[in-house]
Every structure is written in C-alpha cells, then in structure tokens.
Amino acid sequence: AKGLEFGTVIIYGSNQYGKDDSVKSKSLSIDKDFGLLSKVPSPEGYFEKPVTPAVVALHNFVLGKKHAAELKRLFYVAVTRAIHRLIITATHTDYKPRAGSFFELLSGVLPIGQEKNEIEIEGDVQFMIKTEKNYEFAHRKMKLPLKIYTELDEEEPAGVESKSLHAVKNFLVERISDLPKREIISATKISMFSQCPVKYELTYEIGFPPIFELIKSRQSHFEFNFKEDDDLPIRPSLKGKIIHAILCAEKKPGEWYEVAEKMLLDEQTIEQKDFARIIENIEADLGTFYASRIYEELKKAGEYRNEYEVYCEEENFFLFGIIDKLILNKERLEIIDYKTDDVDEYRLTERAESYFVQLKFYAYILSRLFEGVDRFYLRLVFIKHPDHPVHIQITRRDLEEFRTEIISVIKKIQTAGYQPNFNHCPKCQYALE
User: Fold this and answer.
1) Nearest-5° angle of CA 39, CA 42, CA 44?
2) Of 137, 151, 199, 272, which residue is the least packed, with the fewest Cβ within 10 Å?
3) How far is 304 from 64, CA to CA, in rounded Å?
C-alpha cells in the first residue's frame, strides 16, 4: 500500500501489538552485534530473579528504540493512505493502551477517554501551490474534527437480504500448490538427486550437513563441485579444494606451494602442526598427476577454458555449472573434470557412473550455447590414477533425451518427491553403520 492512496482506510485493532524480541528470563537469543544473550541466574540462589547483564540491557534498549521507530513509521504510512475517510478502531479496558501499539501512539497525543464525542485538532499547514511558471508556498490555519464512537449498532447492509449473510459457506478443500520459478539448478544438485532423493533432501532442504560434520566417523566417498552452491553448508575435503585450485590455476611442479599454504592459512580450523603432513599428502598426489601421460596431453591443448562457468535458461528455471577444463575443438567439445577421490583403481568405472550425470549436465548446457557442435567428449581424471581416465562420448541427440531426465528431476525437487534409493545406502556418507 505504500505510495498508494485509497478513499477510505480502516486501521483495525489498533490496540494490538507485535512480537517482543527482547531477551527474557530462561531464554537464549543471538544478535550479530551483541553475540549470545541471556539473563543469568542470580548469585543469591536459583529461585531468585535472574540478573540482567549490562550487554543484555543495552541490547533490549536498542531493540526497543528500533521497534518504536518502526511502529511510528508504519503508523504514519497507514494514516496517510486515506483520501476522504480514516477510521481507527481499538478494543481496550478503560482506555488503557498496550505498549508497542498504534493506540499507544494515539493516546500520547489525543485526549482519548475523557468522555468526549469529538476531538478537534488544529495546526498551521503549509501548502505548495502551482502557478503558471513556478510554485508558491502558503500557510493556513486548519481545524479537523475527529469523531469518537464508543459503541456501534449492528446494521443490515442496505439492499441485501439478511438470509444471504448466513448462506452456506463453500470451502476450498483442494491443496493449493506453489512451485518456485527462475530457480538456479546446479549440476551438483542434479547429480546428488540422481544418487538418492533423500540424500538431496537431507543436504539441501533440511540442512543436515552441519550436524553431520559433528558426528561423522568417516570421509565422504564422493566429491562434488560445491563451489557451484556457495550457500551449501557442507564442503569437500580441504585437500580436494586445494588440488582443484592448483590445477585450474595451471601451477607447474614446484609452483603450487604458495597456493596451498595460503588456502591452509585461510582455513582457521587447521593447526600449524598439521601443515607439513597435509602439504606432503598433496605433493604425493600432484606428483603422480604431473608425471602422467594425461598431464602432458592436457598441456598441449589448443583453445581451452579453466573453471568455465556456464548458464542457460530452461523453461522456468536456470541451469548452472562450473567446468574444471573445457577444450574447444571444431569437431567436438571436451569436458575435463578432476576428481581427488581416494578410490582403488578397479573401482574407477563404478565410481564414475555417478559423476557422469554431472558431466552430461554440463554437456547439455554447452549444447545450448554452442549450437554448431554435435559431439561431446566427457572425461573424468582421477588424480590418484591419472593414466586411467574414464570417458564417454555423447551426441546432441543423446543430450536431448537427457533433457527429459533433467526436467523430471527438477519437477520432483519442486514437488518434494524425495523417494529413497536404498541401493545407494552402502556408498552414502549419511548411512549409519
């Protein structure tokens, strides 16, 4: 309603009040400026009145000032919407206003409750008048009578038969559905939902990862590109993040230490004594990769992009992904995805099945962006086994069929169709032993 005007405005129930967010006894609050807030037990004993620390008193004082200012702002907006008639109602006991209500603001400036049927307010009002070439300002004394009604007689609306007021009500019993639009869907989300819808629900809808981080007893078997979803609480292993950053920055052997050390220093949960062990572990994996045939092959790539972000609009949502390395050829596009999984060589193909959903998702977006390309080469490079890449080649026709699968998954996400995939339980980080 702000910015609009109406012939008649009714402010109903002005003696009601909003929620009080101040810190009370036996409660715990958190504030971005004041931190954790709570009243504390009295040193005189458990049954004595709790003590209000100074920081809590200051927080409550500031909050009270903010609420008062917001109340005045809202009330001002409400009363200034009316063009011809403004009606304000209140239920009360002996004209007593409740703290934090519109009625309290009115009672502070008008003599309400003195058995008057009318209150007259007056003041000097400034007008701006438009002339032919300019504006002029004029002052005028204004008087405005305000009528007060202590009770209202119930009346039948004119021209309406009374029986129509008591007609049988029709109830809408169907469920009202509301689907999100223009939502960003990442490759990580599609891949995780394809593994198990319940895993997706725990991660994205319920936000289980922070709790899981506290209780997990083993590392995740799968690594996802969590950079695509910055709001996701869970993160991949720090080692995986560092190796990805080094490879995407194209650091050569002997040039990557500075990147790793900076990322370790930024990670405040890592103690200094663990630095050497982590660096040594990263060096072992990178050493294997740098000595591989695939590393030499990737160095010779012609036109390519590292950490290439891709977007496209699909129906009423957006698809988004970040590709580790994209090699652009005239005949085909090559999608390279680095994986730092600690997995045995004989299980690479099995592990790759879940990741290829993610790479197909990237390929579909690319098929929308590069309309002249018909073939796409998807390659997974496991850093621990670089010379055993797992790859597939798909065509534009294959991706058109995959589009149906993407849309199906998104609709299930939108309608909360989280049916468990029990076959994934033995591999899932959330599964209990």
Assistant:
1) 175
2) 151
3) 58
